[in-house]
Amino acid sequence: MAKKKTIEADLSTQEKIKEAARKVFTQKGYAATRTRDIAEEAGINLALLNYYFRSKEGLFEIVMVEKLQQLFGTIVPILNDEGTTLEKKLELVVLCYIDMLTAHPDLPIFVLSEIRVDPERFSQRIQAGKLLREAYFLKQLKERRPDLHPLHFVMNLVGMTLFPFVGKPIFQAIGNLPAKDYAVLMEERKALIPKWVQAILKTK
Amino acid sequence: MAKKKTIEADLSTQEKIKEAARKVFTQKGYAATRTRDIAEEAGINLALLNYYFRSKEGLFEIVMVEKLQQLFGTIVPILNDEGTTLEKKLELVVLCYIDMLTAHPDLPIFVLSEIRVDPERFSQRIQAGKLLREAYFLKQLKERRPDLHPLHFVMNLVGMTLFPFVGKPIFQAIGNLPAKDYAVLMEERKALIPKWVQAILKTK
DNA sequence: AAATAATTTAATCAATTGATTAAATTATTT
DNA sequence: AAATAATTTAATCAATTGATTAAATTATTT
Question: Which residue ranges does the record assign to the HTH tetR-type domain (chains A, B) (predicted)?
């Protein structure tokens, strides 16, 4: 058995492929990605991809699980924290999301596109379902506004935070903004969105 | 020249193909769509697709232009109307959008996905840029809140309205809602979003 | 050092896929 | 009705693409 050095090489080559797969899949989506694109990006022979991962599908599966976690997993601990007020949670979620999305702008459109292909397959995987339904956040929301479905607030919060990244090319076009200025708007939204959501909470 | 009957048959077969292309492209995206899928959906021979339209790309181009118009063109006349208040415009845009999206739920995710593939190519086509910058809506917005970039409000309005359709599978999963109940929420939002956006306009 | 195991490569497959061609059919014009 | 033009089909191509195979190379163990 080749062990020590083997595992190192393993991790290295395997990780190179995974990293390339993350990049190419996220950029072009599953269908438009050719395994040759990934191999080239990773700087390896095409056959190696099938040696380490069984198939394109297999590699995609691994990347997708990671990306789902990245997009949905991060906010769960924030929403579940029993030591923070509703207001604080809103601030933290917005801050955390905008920072993450600034670093990975095409994460949400990638995940949403792939979910569309097979909603059943991926929707279950988002344990955010269970986690959100049991979240302390939900209790706080219901106390504040028992008259409205909590999902309305989640839609507003996520819509205002995430959508500017999903629709970035469009908003940039209609606003005629260079990338730099767009980034400034995103920064501004870190402080603005929590205020807006709180204004929504106080409506009639 | 075969004219009368020719044109009728032309429109009929051609339109069958276009209709099939609209459906399949919108559902699966460009890359995942095979011309054979479209031919089958249209109930015609594959060669006919290339007889009427020069290529997959050509057919897609036609569909995409339609869809861009459908998604962005509809709101322009509403926003440009000099005879309505800002409040009325908000109401009308939300109403119009939610009705349209209820009828064509996968329109926005389709358009956004394809724009991602080649942002330059499609972003220019959205004359909404020029139209929004010159819109009466913008003037009204600037009067009301000169301190904030108008794009913030557009992002909030569109985010709250459109995003629940883009993220439908996810919101349904985390809310554990059947399709029927989800539709009810969308109906509720017709009246709620304008109020919320107005609350945002009044902040601080 | 020899044997063994793991990794990498070049070559090749078979299936898929967008597109074309030539012939057949149908409609229109003269 | 004959000639012509438009439409449709079956068959076929060539390129692409995910995957495999057998051989070569490199690392590890005995």
Answer: 11-71
Q: What is the pTM of this model?
A: 0.93
Q: In sequence order, which ranges of chain A are alpha helices (DSSP H)?
A: 4-32, 35-42, 46-52, 56-68, 75-80, 86-103, 107-117, 119-123, 128-133, 136-144, 150-166, 168-175, 179-201
- Helix, coil or strand: residue B97: helix
Rounded Cα gap, residues A161 and A104, in angstroms? 14
What does the alpha-carbon distance between residue B157 and residue B87 come to, in Å, rounded to a whole number? 12
Spatial separation of the C-alpha atoms in residues B68 and B64, rounded to whole Å:
6
pLDDT per position as a tens digit, B8-49 = 444 689 999 999 999 999 999 999 999 999 999 999 999 999
Q: Which residues touch strand C (CB under 7 A)?
A: A 1-2, 6-7, 9-10, 13, 44-48, 51; B 1-6, 8-9, 33-36, 46-47, 50, 54-57
Q: Compute the distance between CA of residue A69 and CA of residue A76 in angstroms, rounded to an integer.
A: 10
Q: Which nucleotide is nearest to A43 (CA to C1')?
A: C8
The SS3 call for residue A124 is coil
